[in-house]
From TrEMBL:
Protein name from the UniProt record: Uncharacterized protein
Chain segments annotated as coiled-coil in the UniProt record: 73-109
Protein species of origin: Zobellia uliginosa
Membrane-crossing segments per the record: 20-42, 54-72
Record keywords: Coiled coil, Membrane, Transmembrane, Transmembrane helix
């Protein structure tokens, strides 16, 4: 029991450290944006622009370089993961076992919530933050996440499939009713490697 508590405490401490690193990272980036604004002469919403200060601008750019690096790295990583997944799907379609799935028997469990999203990524968004009107950069949107699931017995073995789909639940059920059937591709060497053809939802 003591070992479990210690492990839990270590994980909690790591979560705190990771959260602290995130706050520090974005705090430095925020200071960088403020330095750039100050260097460009921004003195507030109701004040005239001041003189250009290239040192402040350069200082701000240095501070936001980690953000630019993180954005580029994230995009490259996502692109590589997408390409790898496309290869996996292509191989499954070519060599995998094909199982017909009756979409009318697929269970759909949905959950809905509201979420704030950023709608303004322009330079004016930074100005809104500076003047205390960061709410202008946000918009409240409705989200719906559907978890589809079904079980299929193949050669005496039962396979359980689950996947999450973000779209309106009624539209999803209409698509399923119209399509009626689709194909589940299964890797014969690894039954955990599966792909359900839902391309008709796009």
């Amino acid at each position: 029991m003591r070992a479990v508590v210690t492990h839990f405490s270590n994980m909690k401490f790591k979560d705190i450290i990771n959260s602290l690193k995130t706050y520090i990272f974005f705090g430095i980036v925020y200071i960088g944006f403020l330095a750039i604004l100050a260097g460009l002469g921004y003195r507030g919403r109701w004040r005239p622009m001041g003189d250009l200060n290239p040192y402040f601008v350069a200082f701000g750019i240095v501070l936001i370089i980690p953000l630019l690096y993180w954005i580029i790295k994230t995009k490259l990583t996502d692109r590589a993961a997408k390409a790898e997944n496309e290869k996996r799907i292509e191989k499954l379609k070519k060599d995998g076992q094909k199982i017909e799935i009756d979409l009318n028997k697929v269970k759909v469990n949905s959950s809905s919530w509201q979420e704030q999203i950023i709608t303004d990524n322009t330079r004016y968004a930074g100005l809104n933050e500076v003047v205390g009107r960061g709410d202008r950069n946000l918009k409240l949107v409705n989200r719906t996440l559907n978890q589809i699931s079904f079980k299929k017995t193949i050669k005496g073995r039962t396979i359980t499939y689950r996947e999450s789909i973000e779209m309106d639940t009624d539209n999803l059920k209409i698509h399923f009713a119209l399509k009626k059937k689709t194909i589940l591709y299964i890797d014969p060497d690894d039954r955990k490697n599966m792909y359900l053809d839902l391309e008709f939802l796009k």
